[in-house]
Amino acid sequence: MQGASHMLLEEPVRLASVLAPVKPKVFPSLTKIVGTLGPKSHTVEVIEECLTAGMSVARFDFSWLDAAYHQETLDNLRKAAQNVKKLCPVMLDTLGPEIQVHNSTGGPIELTAGNHVMITPDCSKAPSAEILPVTFGDIAKAVKKGDTLFIGQYLFTGSETTSVWLEVLDSSGENVNCLVKNTATLAGPIFSLHVTQVHISLPTLSEYDKQVISTWGSRNSVDIISLSHTRSAQDVRELRAFLQSHDLHETQIYAKVENSEGLDHFDEILKEADGVIISRGYLGIDLPPENVFLFQKTAIQKCNLAGKPVIITRVVDSMIDNLRPTRAEATDVANAVLDGTDGILLGAETLRGPYPVDAAETVYNQPLQFKKVMRYVGEPMLHEESVASAAVRSAMKVKAAAIVVFTFSGRAARLVAKYRPPMPILAVVFPPEGSDPSKWRSYGTTQARQCFAVRGVYPLMGSTDEAETGGLTKEEYGKKLALNYGRSVGIVKPFDRVIIFEKIGDSPVVKIIECEDS
Question: 245-256 burial string, b = 16+ CB within 10 Å, else e?
Fold first, then answer.
């Protein structure tokens, strides 16, 4: 390290570059924000504010509300993205094997610690403090005496009084008798039930999920699907096959790992999925709290080494009700970023919290620092990845202002992002040959939008037609587009160095250029 620092100090530095002003808050955080859109973040105006505050990916949670509502929200997202001139990928979150309690009366249900309550699959029964009907017929076969159940409209956090902790006492036919461990009030039309460390014989990709994907998802060409409760690599393969059968070949799959089964098969899941979401809510129930952080750090490191995006959830729960996060939550966000996470997912904070814009802005503007990912010394690198890692090392050696990547699929940008450069990656995404230019420019391509989920990558829409019209080669056009954008937002100044990572023929190439004084 001393040699590297000495070399950097000896490099000639132009005072004009040092003194040139930098626009504030261009990319204060390379870590991305995934915002869940819902009742509190539904309008064009609020979505515009969320995008401006730092939201990079819009999540649509189909465990709540119907397709018509989500379609209206998506239409508003498209208008907002056009108004603020930003691309925003769409993430569809599946329901998965979730067991639900339907509160047909709609009234609050008061449960008192020490009392007994019966869990039954007979949904004709009216829910009460004595009986709770669930949507799973084999609940009595799945659990045994001593097992732990959690029920609530929202996920149990340990501090709220809207979720209840139950202990299984015994079974009677199809019914399960439980002891109430804490006093709570269940309110709302639907509650979720989670059984700790027990296999539930329901498919990961439910019939409801298939219906949503084949209609809403296919119609809107969703960019990413978050596969809830992913328990094995086969779950990912089954979803991949289903997507291909509905002409969603380019839709990426992010495996949402949220139970002990997913942990047991994490390595296999990581190989099959395009990205991973560490769902700390249910994990915090399945695992002792002191083990959640250990899994988080290990899982993030594995994803970093594999070069696949990783997103974590449940970081600023207090902002569901409050304007500011707690100090512990702010530290939690910073630690996740230092671990190497690509993104932070905001759920209820933007879905139903009164401060959706503030939640996105608070997390985005954390004074974050990032650690380097150690070079992986296992299997030999592919040629392209070797050059991508060299591009990052070169950028750090020469203190480059940005790395410019030319790409068709976004893969080259993800390879560069894998090595966690401390500067932004400007990915110039060119349209595939034979694509429709009008469709390409209308809302952006799937590949470009998907780049927004990857740490540090900011896609720019390239056009081979514009390059030819201007009498430029693709390389000249892409470089001009990226540098003009960099100057406009203040990340590139006169005499700054910029790394270009591109493919010439079949060979990946790295170039170092110096920006002109113009």
Answer: eeebeebbbbbb
